[in-house]
Structure formats: structure tokens, C-alpha cells
Design a protein that fits this description.
Blueprint: H1 2-19, E1 22-26, E2 31-35, E3 52-54, E4 77-84, E5 94-99, E6 105-110, E7 113-118, E8 125-128, E9 140-147, E10 153-154, E11 159-160, E12 179-184, E13 187-189, H2 194-197, E14 202-210, E15 215-226, E16 232-241, E17 247-252, E18 256-258, E19 263-272, E20 286-294, E21 297-306, E22 311-314, E23 317-320, E24 323-324, E25 327-333, H3 347-359, E26 364-368, H4 374-383, E27 386-390, H5 400-417, E28 423-427, H6 435-448, E29 455-457, E30 486-489, H7 527-542, E31 555-559, H8 588-596, E32 608-610, E33 621-628, E34 632-637, E35 640-644, E36 646-648, E37 652-659, E38 664-670, E39 676-683, E40 690-695, E41 709-717, E42 730-736, E43 739-744, E44 757-759, E45 764-771, E46 776-784, E47 787-796, E48 833-836, E49 838-843, E50 862-863, E51 872-890, E52 896-897, E53 899-904, E54 907-913, E55 920-937, E56 942-943, E57 973-982
Parallel strand pairs: 25-26, 25-31, 26-27, 27-28, 28-29, 30-31
Antiparallel strand pairs: 1-12, 2-3, 2-4, 4-9, 5-8, 5-12, 6-7, 6-9, 10-11, 13-15, 14-15, 15-19, 16-17, 16-18, 16-20, 20-21, 22-23, 23-24, 32-33, 33-37, 34-35, 34-38, 36-37, 38-39, 40-41, 41-45, 42-44, 42-46, 43-45, 46-47, 48-57, 49-51, 50-57, 51-55, 51-57, 52-56, 53-54, 53-55
Helix pairs in contact: 3-4, 5-6, 7-8
Protein name: Glycoside hydrolase family 2 sugar binding protein
Domain Glycoside hydrolase family: 704-793
Domain Glycoside hydrolase family 2 immunoglobulin-like beta-sandwich: 211-309
């Protein structure tokens, strides 16, 4: 059987060379690694027989992932070597190497000769090895010296890269991303690898969209080179095929003559009908083949996977396929790592992780600080997850060489990823940059991706005239101009191990060490309080959603999705802010978000989730929380109604002091008319009796390539086969067959990394098992004291590789996920209130700056002179209106309360106090018609002791304009004021 497989591969291999002028090979297999430095390792004849064989992607310090704190991840020099051959038919062809990325810097040698250096540790790059490579029976040796020092400095400038940071950029060293080898003719379409090759590749985009009609004009353009000795008369042909491989349309551009040695760009365009538009949760992708033909014969063919979608960024909102979408999702560390693996996971596992965000109704992932690797970008294409693609940054703006380094990263990343439809935002830095720098970034986007429908901006940028989006890290921003969305909200931490105050091991909020003297309650939560806090935080953004006025919030993303081996404040040496843990087991806050985010703006499907479990000790009384989209929720214990919950924060229903009884706790949601719209229940589980093993479902076979992984789940179950939610049993694993144990993770010594015995947490845990290069049967067995054992058989399929080349690409066989269906044609929001424009204002002091309180600029404000008698401002409206609400953003909004009196044409409509918020506070007024609205400070404002939020470095996070009024007495400061009447 193996001989037949090899013969089939060899015939296909030869056929490709004789009939096609473009072939791309998986170049990940048959590498060897040595940790340490040896200058002779670059030589072709060096003896590497004793080196460790590996399959890429492979970080040589992967054992550290989640075992060590980020600052302690192992660094140093490692050498990678690969022996490979090319058939004689490759002689005279163009041969390129493509690296998706390394960490940090690498020196590359082919057959003992230097071929290049790459140092930024982020972007893809490549080399033209056509004149150095051997063909036929002669062997080639590629040697790479990798330095992943935290202190690595760019050689030409002696400058450290800004993103070599021990807070956020986990250091998984070596060739930690995929590698490819390309063979093309001497008349060819270039690769999108600018820094090392100076080329830009293929660009596919669409315009003239008719979303309802399902049509658009598709454009393709390719940078081409003629390295033959003759002029070439070229026809550029484009063929579009759908996700099922069916032809959609073929069209051609004008004929072009290209002189020897010349480079040019050729293009073609055509209207195309019956299109499926890429959308949230609808990762519909087309294959666009661009072909160079000479005398009617194809001499170079490039296939580009892409999708088509229409975007707009206007009126403070984001439009996808003509429908407004409020972003809700996650700010995820770009490393996106796993225990004992780091980031170098197989493509199916990237789809699994990113797909969980979509399953949880997230629609956007903001990769933090640095550009994600191509595998994650392509994964988001397939699962239908919008993404924000970073350049490279730590914090703040930068100048000189480090700014030029950042520009180079965004340029290379745009060129490399411009055909990926899931990229909606380009991010110029992790925090605000100058207007001049923003203009430079925008010019780069306009040069290399002028038609991709992507906004370019940065965090902050609240008053920018150049940026196309912005938004603070934690707080609510609104705009009537560019979209503003929160980029890292809900930074609290809480481990999956801890349910609540009443469940062993009884972790209360704040238990554990303090970080820089901060209140530990915000970073040492349990799952219950973490989920409740997620509801409170999201509601503040959603409360200012599209439909609520002229100025709106475009949403926000929660930090982070999965636990991360980056900076932390809790008792562990990794960050526990995730909605899933490091092995992607769901936590309670995952389900809370899933309920609230079930729609483009407003929830479009009613649902609920009862936070927690129902296995307590006799006598326990506790508050029960239900997250629901319903108008009211009823709770029952064993069928007996306990009434309706107290609704708060838009989606949270609280039932106070509920006494536990074995059996069933159920919740039923009703709409405003009393109609049942959703329900859910939790039952008491029995005592643990057995173990259960499950291989997490995957869409592609388990491949014996030495890098593929299976994710295996172990559960402690009762006699009915139901998971025991409070079980903490220690599980003992055994593994037999052609596989490598990578294990799992739990709270404990070294986080149990690589341990064969580790505990479940809340009745469940997972482990990773890596294939070897030998196919076959793999047996996994688990035992635990007092429980019935379990076993599982895995089968790894053969992986065909010949002389270091493989035809099967890393993402082969992974499907597009289309679960949510195409973009709905219905509106995504309704108008809830009508804004009344302010035309002018007078004030007790500083009237000349009163306009700053309604100028749609959250970096400006009106403030009086600190005297109580001058603490008033009066707004004149565009027309007489029945004022029903006043929404204010006040300085020090997070910690300060302002006692106010509001009048309409002199008649009092409100007397009371604001409360600390994440930005905006809406005051419900007694409806009164008039044209002048006066807001006055009734008495000295006070500090309410609200959470002022402190970063891990101890810095207080901004909660208003630069001036701090936290100690002020008679000061009234209004950043933005909005006046509303009820919707008709």
C-alpha cells in the first residue's frame, strides 16, 4: 500500500513539473533542530545526524508555554537545518522560499552560502534561491540561525524593535510558522513578499456592489516579471470558481507585451452575478485563478482564496453588506497560544479556536500589538470572523527608526494579507499616534490596498481628522463621524477552576495576591462574578448602540478570549481573563456573552443562560443570576416558582438568597406581552463514578506529519453519564503508539505542563497529543482513584513527503463555515429615541468654550471656574421639543457622581445624582416641551469610590479629559451632552 502511495505521489510530482509552470509545496517536513550555537552549522557538509528531527511550525522552547511566566521564557540561539532535493525538471526555473514568520531574527544559508537576514520577528518574507539551488540528485541544505533574545537589536540601526515586549508578546522562538517552496517559470506572477523580494503579488477585490441583487464587479491585478531573454506577449486571464469548485466566470484583460527583465502590473475586471457575499459567520470563499498566457498556452497560474464583501464606515457606524453591525468580540493576544505548544498549532486547531468566538456570537477579533500570522488570518476567513490587523507596537507613538520599523511592518502585512476578506480594520498602533503619522499609515494603505474596503486607524484617535476609526481601551466612546469602539474592555481575571463563593475550593473575589497594591477583586474573580461583570460592562456599550441617537457607540471587544501566557495580575503566572481557558474549555462568561451578542446590533434570537451549576451542599443559600434577552425571567426550583428576577444592566436577572434543593433549577424568559420566548435548566448531577474520553471533532484527518495535534477531552461523569461539575479528581494518562504526549494544564505545580497526571477542574480537562511521522493506531487510557477507567483510540493517517517536499498544504481540507447564513436583508436596529440638535450654549463661566460640550469630540470639554454658583450651562435646541432624556459624559465619569438639576424653559424636569459609569450616563426626565435646557450642579460633587481602573504597571487609566477633577468641589465638567425626545 505504501509503495502504491509513493508511486502515485511520484507520478503526480513529475506531472506537475512537466505540465505546470507554478507549484507550491509544503516545506514544513524533515527539519532538524539544535539548541545552541555552532558557527559550522551553516556549512552544507556539517554533520547534523544527532540533531532533533521536527516538523514545522516548531518553536524550540515550546515546553515553556504556560509553564513559565512570559518574562522567563527561554531565549538564545537555535539552529534549524533541512536537507531536500529538487528534480532535474526544476533546472532553469524560478525557485522561491516563503516563510510566514520567525521569532525573532534569522540568518539563512543555502548550501553554505548566505541568502539573507530577517529580523523583525513578525512579518512574512522570502528568498529567491533560483541561482543557488541544486536540482536532480544533488542534495540541498538549508541552514537557519535563529536568535530570539528579548534584547535583539536590528543590525543596521542598532535599534531594538518596539514590540519585543515582555508584557504581551510571548516569545516562542525559532521557525514557528509555516514555510513553502514555490517553483515557477521565468515569466511569472510575483509573491507578496516585499521586504526581501521587493514584490507585491496578486491583488483581488470587488466594487460596484449590488448586495440585494447579488452582483459586483470583480477585479484582479498581478505584478508580473519577465526574466526570460525575449519579449513576451501576454494575455491575462481570470477564472472565478465558487466554494464547491464550480466555475462562476472567466474573463481577460488587454494583451500586454513585456520586455526582457521588465516588471509590470496587468489587470482585468468583469461584472459577476449570483455572488455569495462573505459575512459574519458565513465564511464564503471563492478561488480566483490568475493565468498568464503566451500564444494561448498557460505559462503561470496562481490561485487566490478570497471572499467579497461590502464595507462602509460612516455616521459613527460600521456597515457590512449594507447592514449595520455593532462589533462584539475579543482583543486576543496575537500569539493565540496553547499549553506546551505555543502558537505553532495545526490549521484545524486555529479554526477550532477562532470558530469558538463565532459560536459564542463574537463577530470581531482584534489581534493585539503585532500582526497575526497568516494561518490565523486565513482561519478567520473560513469561520466568518472579522478581524483587526495590527502593525507592530508596544504602547504610544514612536519616532525615528522605530517608527520606520513599524511602517515597514504595516506595509509588508498589508501586501501579504490584502486578499483576506475577514480583515476589516488596519491598526496603526496599539495606542494613539500623531496626525502626521496617521497620514503616513493611511498613505501606505492607499498605495497597497486602495480598494479593499478596510478602515485604518488606531486605539484612541478620538479627535483625529485623519483616522477612519478609533476608541479607547475600556470606556464608552461615541461618534457621529468615524466609528468608535472599545478595544480592550473587561480586563478582569478569573480561573475556570473557581465556580463561586459556595463551591470548593471556595475562591471569593479578591482572594490571592495584590498587584502593585491594586484591589484584587478585579483580577482574582471566580467564574460567577466574572460573568456578571461581563454583562455590566457590555451593557454600557450596547446602551449607546446604533439607533439610540446621532452619536453612537460602534461596540467593543473583550480582552482576552483564551487564557494567555502574557502579563498577568493574579496568583497564576499567566493571564486568566479568557472566556475560555488555555485548552478552549468554555467558562461562564463565554455563555453570558453568547446570550447578549446574538445579533448584529440588537439580539435577534431570544435566549438565556443560568450562571453556574446546581450541586451544592445542604443549607447553601445564594444569589442566582440569569443572563437573558427576555423582558422578564421567572425562576423555578423543582417546578415551584420563586418569582421574577430583578432586571439590571439590560440582560441580568438576579434572584436573591435562593436555597439549594437537589433536583432542577429552571428559568423561563417572557417578552413584554407575557409570551414565553426562551428557557433553560440545570439539574443536580450524581456522584462521580466513571471517566469519559472524547476526541474533539475535527474536519480533517489526523495526519502523521510530526506536527498535527489531536485535542482529547476527559470528563468525570455520574451514573447517567453526565459531567460532575464540582469534581477535582486527579487523572492518570497513559499513551501507546506513534504519538508524542504534549499534555494539558491545570492550576498547580508548573501548571502541570507535560505531566501525565493532572486534575480535572469542574469535572473536565483536555490534553494535546501530537502525531509522529509514523502513521498508525494510538491508544489513550485514563484512570483515577475510585472511578471506572476509559480509553480512546486515535488513528493517524499517512503523510506523503518526498525529498523534503510535500504536496498537501497545511490547511488542506478545511471547510468554510457557513452556519449563520448570508447577511440578513432586514434592518439590524430600530430607532429608540430622537436626538435634538443643540445650536448654541451659554454658561455661568467660560461661555466661549461651551460648544466643546456638544462638539462630537471627547477630548474636549466645557468646565466652569470651580465655583458652585457658576456651575451651570444652558443649551438652546434647534426646535421646541418634548425633552425625555439627557445623556451626559462627565469628567472622571468612572469614579465621580454629580448632583444635578435640569430644567426645560425654566421648569424642573430632574433633580438627582449621576452615577459612575464607563462613559455615558442617561438621565430620564419628566417629559417637558421647550427650547432651552439648563444643567446645573446642585451641590458639591463627590467621589463615589468607583473603580478607577489601574493598568498592570500601576498607571491609573484615563476616565475623562486630561485635566483631573477628582478633587474638585464646585466644578462641573461636561465632555458631551445630548438631548433627546421619545421616538415617535
Amino acid at each position: 500500500m505504501m509503495k502504491k502511495c509513493f508511486l502515485a505521489f511520484f507520478l503526480a510530482f513529475c506531472c506537475l513539473y512537466s505540465h505546470a509552470q507554478r507549484t507550491t509545496y509544503n516545506f514544513n517536513s524533515s527539519w532538524k533542530v539544535l539548541v545552541g550555537d555552532n558557527a559550522d552549522a551553516k556549512e552544507a557538509g556539517f554533520n547534523d545526524a544527532g540533531w532533533k528531527p521536527v516538523t514545522l511550525p516548531y518553536a524550540w522552547n515550546e515546553d515553556d508555554a504556560f509553564k513559565k511566566d512570559i518574562k522567563d521564557l527561554t531565549t538564545g540561539i537555535a539552529w534549524y537545518r533541512k536537507h531536500f532535493k529538487l528534480p532535474a525538471t526544476a533546472k532553469g526555473q524560478k525557485i522561491f522560499l516563503e516563510f510566514e514568520g520567525i521569532r525573532q531574527a534569522g540568518e539563512f544559508y543555502l548550501n553554505g552560502k548566505p541568502i539573507g537576514l530577517h529580523e523583525n520577528g513578525v512579518t512574512a518574507f522570502g528568498f529567491d534561491i533560483s541561482d543557488l539551488v541544486n536540482t536532480g540528485d544533488a542534495e540541498n541544505v538549508l541552514a537557519v540561525r535563529i536568535d530570539n533574545s528579548w534584547e535583539y537589536h536590528e543590525r543596521a540601526t542598532n535599534t531594538k524593535f518596539q514590540w519585543e515586549d515582555k508584557n504581551f508578546n510571548a516569545n516562542y522562538g525559532g521557525i514557528n510558522k509555516n514555510v513553502y517552496l514555490h517553483i515557477a517559470g521565468k515569466l511569472y506572477q510575483t509573491l507578496p513578499l516585499f521586504t526581501t523580494l521587493g514584490t507585491t503579488g496578486v491583488y483581488v477585490y470587488a466594487d460596484q456592489y449590488n448586495i440585494k441583487g447579488g452582483s459586483a464587479t470583480i477585479h484582479a491585478e498581478s505584478q508580473i516579471k519577465n526574466e526570460t531573454t525575449q519579449p513576451q506577449n501576454i494575455v491575462y486571464e481570470v477564472a472565478v470558481t465558487d466554494a464547491k469548485g464550480a466555475p462562476v466566470k472567466t474573463f481577460s484583460g488587454a494583451a500586454t507585451t513585456l520586455a526582457p527583465g521588465a516588471t509590470a502590473t496587468v489587470n482585468a475586471a468583469s461584472p459577476v452575478n449570483d455572488l455569495h457575499f462573505w459575512s459574519w459567520g458565513y465564511g464564503y470563499l471563492y478561488t480566483v485563478q490568475t493565468t498568464l498566457k503566451v500564444n494561448g498556452k498557460a505559462v503561470d497560474v496562481v490561485s487566490t482564496k478570497t471572499g467579497f464583501r461590502k464595507t462602509e464606515f460612516k455616521d459613527g457606524m460600521i456597515y457590512l453588506n449594507d447592514r449595520v453591525i455593532m462589533v462584539h468580540g475579543y482583543a486576543q493576544r496575537t500569539s493565540n497560544e496553547w499549553p506546551a505548544i505555543g502558537l505553532s498549532v495545526p490549521a484545524w486547531l486555529s479554526d477550532y479556536s477562532n470558530g469558538l468566538m463565532v459560536e459564542g456570537n463574537g463577530n470581531l477579533v482584534r489581534w493585539m500589538h503585532i500582526t497575526p500570522w497568516k494561518q490565523d488570518i486565513e482561519s478567520c476567513d473560513r469561520v466568518g470572523l472579522m478581524q483587526s490587523m495590527q502593525a507592530g507596537d508596544a504602547e504610544h507613538d514612536i519616532t525615528g527608526t522605530r517608527w520606520e520599523q513599524r511602517k515597514a511592518v504595516i506595509r509588508d502585512a498589508i501586501i501579504y494579507n490584502k486578499n483576506n476578506p475577514s480583515i476589516i480594520f488596519y491598526e496603526s498602533g496599539n495606542e494613539s499616534i500623531s496626525e502626521a503619522h496617521m497620514a503616513e499609515m493611511k498613505a501606505i494603505r492607499d498605495q497597497y490596498d486602495p480598494h479593499g474596503g478596510r478602515a485604518i486607524g488606531s486605539r484612541e484617535m478620538l479627535d483625529s481628522k485623519v483616522a477612519e476609526y478609533g476608541g479607547e481601551m475600556l470606556y464608552t466612546n461615541k461618534s457621529a463621524h468615524i466609528p468608535m469602539w472599545a478595544m480592550e474592555y473587561s480586563r478582569d481575571e478569573g480561573s475556570r477552576k473557581y465556580w463561586d463563593d459556595h463551591t470548593p475550593p471556595f475562591h471569593k473575589d479578591g482572594d490571592g495576591p495584590q498587584y502593585n497594591g491594586q484591589n484584587a477583586a478585579v483580577y482574582n474573580r471566580n467564574m460567577e462574578s466574572h460573568a456578571v461583570e461581563n454583562v455590566k460592562r457590555w451593557f454600557e456599550f450596547w446602551n449607546e448602540r446604533p439607533g439610540t441617537g446621532r452619536r453612537v457607540s460602534a461596540g467593543g471587544v473583550n480582552i482576552v478570549f483564551s487564557e494567555t501566557n502574557t502579563h498577568h495580575r493574579g496568583a497564576e503566572n499567566y493571564r486568566c481573563s479568557g472566556e475560555v481557558d488555555a485548552l478552549r474549555i468554555k467558562k461562564q462568561n463565554y455563555y453570558a456573552n453568547q446570550v447578549m451578542w446574538n445579533g448584529w446590533v440588537n439580539p435577534e434570537k431570544n435566549s438565556l443562560h443560568i450562571i453556574g451549576h446546581w450541586n451544592y451542599a445542604s443549607g447553601v443559600k445564594k444569589d442566582v443570576y440569569v443572563v437573558s434577552t427576555a423582558d422578564k425571567v421567572e425562576l423555578k426550583v423543582n417546578g415551584k416558582s420563586l418569582g421574577y428576577g430583578q432586571k439590571s444592566d439590560g440582560f441580568l436577572f438576579t434572584f436573591k438568597n435562593i436555597e439549594w434543593q437537589a433536583g432542577t433549577i429552571s428559568a423561563t424568559g417572557y417578552d413584554a406581552n407575557g409570551k414565553q420566548v426562551c428557557e433553560g435548566a440545570i439539574t443536580t448531577k450524581g456522584n462521580p463514578v466513571a471517566l469519559r474520553l472524547t476526541n474533539i471533532e475535527r474536519p480533517a484527518p489526523f495526519i502523521a506529519n510530526g506536527q498535527d495535534l489531536s485535542l482529547v477531552e476527559v470528563e468525570v461523569v455520574d451514573a447517567k453519564g453526565e459531567r460532575c461539575p464540582t469534581a477535582l479528581n486527579t487523572i492518570h494518562f497513559s499513551l501507546e503508539g506513534p504519538a508524542e504526549w504534549r499534555g494539558g494544564m491545570a492550576i498547580g505545580p508548573d501548571n502541570y505542563i507535560l505531566a501525565k497526571s493532572l486534575p480535572v477542574e469542574n469535572g473536565v480537562n483536555r490534553v494535546l497529543i501530537r502525531s509522529t511521522t509514523t502513521p498508525g493506531k494510538i491508544s489513550v487510557k485514563v484512570t483515577a482513584d475510585g472511578l471506572q477507567p476509559a480509553s480512546l483510540t486515535l488513528i493517524s493517517a499517512p503523510f506523503i513527503e518526498n525529498d523534503g517536499l510535500a504536496a498537501r498544504l497545511p490547511a488542506a481540507g478545511l471547510p468554510c463555515r457557513l452556519d449563520r447564513g448570508p447577511t440578513p436583508a432586514t434592518p439590524s436596529y430600530t430607532i429608540t429615541r430622537t436626538p435634538i440638535a443643540i445650536i448654541k450654549a451659554t454658561a455661568g463661566a467660560h461661555t466661549d468654550s461651551a460648544f466643546a460640550s456638544y462638539d462630537d469630540n471627547e477630548l474636549s470639554d466645557w468646565v466652569n471656574d470651580g465655583k458652585l454658583e457658576t456651575a451651570w450651562i444652558e443649551y438652546e435646541l434647534e426646535r421646541p421639543a418634548t425633552v425625555s432624556e439627557v445623556t451626559l459624559k462627565l469628567n472622571n465619569f468612572r469614579s465621580r457622581a454629580y448632583p444635578l438639576i435640569i430644567t426645560v424653559d425654566g421648569r424642573e424636569v430632574f433633580a438627582g445624582s449621576t452615577k459612575p459609569t464607563l462613559g455615558y450616563y442617561t438621565i430620564a426626565c419628566k417629559p417637558e416641551k421647550g427650547k432651552k435646557v439648563r444643567i446645573q450642579l446642585a451641590k458639591v460633587s463627590k467621589d463615589e469610590g468607583g473603580n478607577t481602573m489601574v493598568e498592570v504597571n500601576g498607571k491609573k487609566l484615563d476616565d475623562g479629559v486630561a485635566r483631573d477633577d477628582s478633587k474638585a468641589k464646585g466644578t462641573l465638567s461636561i465632555i458631551e451632552a445630548e438631548i433627546y425626545e421619545a421616538a415617535p
